[in-house]
Write a structure and sequence with these properties.
By secondary structure, the chain is mainly α. It has helices spanning about 20-35, 50-65, 80-95, 105-115, 185-195, 205-220, 250-255, 260-270, 280-285, 300-315, 320-330, 340-350, 360-365, 365-370, 375-380, 385-395, 405-420, 425-435, 445-450, 455-460, and strands at about 5-10, 35-40, 75, 95-100, 140-145, 150-155, 160-165, 175, 200, 225-230, 230-235, 300. The longest helix is centred in the N-terminal third of the chain and has 16 residues, at about 20-35. It is elongated.
């Protein structure tokens, strides 16, 4: 029995799409579950649109979410000679033919089909013609001689048996008139030569699969197993495209979604195992199977992603959370150094409260990060004469305290509440505005302790609030 081998085959013509990430994840998980190999094939034959930066971005994105491929990247453009060789073998076998229809003829056929409101199918004009009749001034394409009669059945591991009338598959082009191979030829040849045992991809490829199966059969190659995953839709039920907001991995990483949380969400997007929701990486590999993939499209729900991310923020080790936060800030925000870094680390237990993303934690940390207090103009209005008096008294009362703890701060606050005939909000709110610039934020004791005595005294002496 062959060792299981799967692949993910993106085109480096743009950033990695979230649907592609899920396809890669399912391939990777299945191969690892079966103790097999997972390969990355870069389909870069579109020379005009393919870019090295996109290839690098694809590789980094997969690594970021925890998907590492086996062996070196398989670069499709380096294998074109193999594809052309197979096209010529198909010609020799009589499974392909040269088509001398001009561009104008093909366009005319397409126009007639459009007028009749029927799908365009090439009329097979050159399928059985003698090449002696070929015009001298037309460079031919090579077309595959598709089956005309009967039906074909795709035994799909997700969709079940899918049947199609053979005459609906046209004699598709496998070599263009400039000698370059088309997608269906290249993909079939690469999958065979890479010894792929399982092709797991989006169900928009089903018609391609029927074409590629015919190439396999004509070449007398053993067929791989096929599994077509339903596509991801927007929350409105439309097919997700690269133009949609939040469609690439970078859209998520830049708002502070963590890789484990997004991976867990994508795993559960169209796949289930009993009633389990949270999966570690090891559990994902252990339990993944093709039987758990649903047949219906899944809807990408940002609120569920945020909820999953919030769960991970609360659950993971704080040292790991801190490392991810610092790394996030270095990439997308500002580098945090020295004492401020230490203060954030010590304060993470409350800075992460109610945070759904790393960006939320970063925003909650602004009062620590910024040297100057940036006052919200509306909140600054809360610093009236009574508030100024409370701030001044609090500043005087903490002079004798060397080490801030909740135990030695609480009596001071309680005394201020009593002497100023107010409540906890009446004391805490002015202090919070004075120290952070806003009436919103962490608890007042947490703010004071995290800033430290020197910084608190400095901020409470700010002329803006006096």
């Amino acid at each position: 029995m062959k060792k299981v081998a799967t692949r993910f085959a993106p085109s480096p013509t743009g950033p990695l799409h979230i649907g592609g990430v899920r396809t890669a994840l399912f391939n990777w998980l299945y191969s690892k579950n079966q103790n097999g190999n997972f390969y990355l094939r870069i389909e870069d034959t579109d020379k005009e649109r393919s870019k090295e930066e996109y290839k690098n971005q694809i590789i980094k994105s997969l690594q970021w979410i925890g998907i590492n491929h086996d062996g070196a990247e398989y670069i499709q453009s380096q294998k074109i000679d193999n594809h052309i060789k197979v096209a010529n073998e198909l010609l020799k076998k009589g499974s392909a033919y040269r088509c001398y229809c001009s561009t104008e003829e093909i366009e005319s056929q397409k126009k007639r089909a459009k007028q009749k409101k029927i799908p365009y199918v090439y009329d097979r004009k050159w399928r059985d013609k003698n090449e002696n009749e070929a015009p001298k001034d037309v460079k031919p394409v090579i077309r595959f001689k598709s089956k005309i009669d009967g039906t074909s059945i795709l035994k799909d591991k997700v969709q079940g048996n899918v049947e199609i009338e053979n005459n609906t598959i046209e004699d598709f082009v496998i070599l263009r008139n400039d000698g370059t191979p088309t997608y269906n030829l290249s993909a079939a040849v690469d999958d065979h030569q890479m010894n792929m045992t399982h092709i797991i991809r989006g169900d928009d490829h089903k018609i391609n699969t029927f074409k590629q199966i015919q190439i396999y059969e004509a070449m007398e190659w053993a067929l791989p197993t096929f599994a077509h995953i339903p596509l991801i839709h927007t929350i409105e039920g439309k097919k997700l495209s690269k133009r949609d907001k939040a469609s690439t991995l970078e859209d998520y990483s830049k708002i502070g979604i963590m890789p484990d949380a997004l991976r867990n969400y994508l795993l559960r997007l169209g796949w289930s195992y009993e009633d389990k929701e949270i999966f570690t990486l090891d559990e994902s590999v252990k339990y993944f199977n093709l039987e758990g993939i649903g047949k219906s499209p899944s809807k990408l729900d940002l609120s569920r992603i945020l909820s999953m991310n919030e769960y991970y923020i609360k659950s993971i080790d704080e040292n790991e959370l801190f490392n991810q936060l610092i790394n996030y800030c270095e990439i997308f925000k500002n580098k945090i150094i020295g004492e401020k870094k230490d203060k954030i680390k010590k304060s993470l237990s409350f800075l992460k409260n109610k945070a759904k993303t790393l960006e939320d934690i970063y925003n909650n940390s602004q009062y620590i990060i910024n040297d100057e207090v940036n006052f919200n103009k509306e909140d600054l209005k809360l610093i009236d004469a009574n508030a100024q008096k409370i701030i001044s008294e609090f500043r005087d009362n903490i002079k004798e305290i060397s080490n801030f703890t909740r135990e030695n701060l609480e009596p001071i606050v309680q005394e201020l509440i009593k002497s100023n005939n107010t409540n906890f909000k009446g004391v805490g709110q002015p202090l919070r505005v004075a120290l952070t610039g806003s009436k919103f934020g962490p608890g007042i004791y947490d703010i004071i302790i995290s800033l430290g005595k020197e910084e608190v005294e400095k901020r409470l002496s700010n002329k803006t609030i006096s």
